[in-house]
Design a protein that fits this description.
Length: about 70
């Protein structure tokens, strides 16, 4: 079950890196002083990636918990 725990931890870290990328992308757009429509376009392009990385983190954490329970 160690493989399940480490694989889950790796997925969670990958998801966390993706979430940080989303935050940095929107933060840079916000500091660029874009108008409302351009800012909305940036945020709309980041939302699917944000949801996917959040899902990846949740799956990874579930794998870790299942691996711990089965050990």
């Amino acid at each position: 079950m160690d493989i399940l725990i480490w694989a889950g931890a790796a997925l969670s870290i990958a998801g966390l890196i993706g979430l940080m990328w989303c935050i940095i992308r929107v933060w840079k757009a916000r500091n660029a002083g874009l108008d409302n429509d351009a800012m909305r376009a940036v945020v709309q392009s980041v939302v699917p990636i944000n949801a996917a990385t959040l899902f990846l983190s949740v799956i990874g954490l579930m794998m870790v918990v299942i691996g711990i329970l089965l050990s």
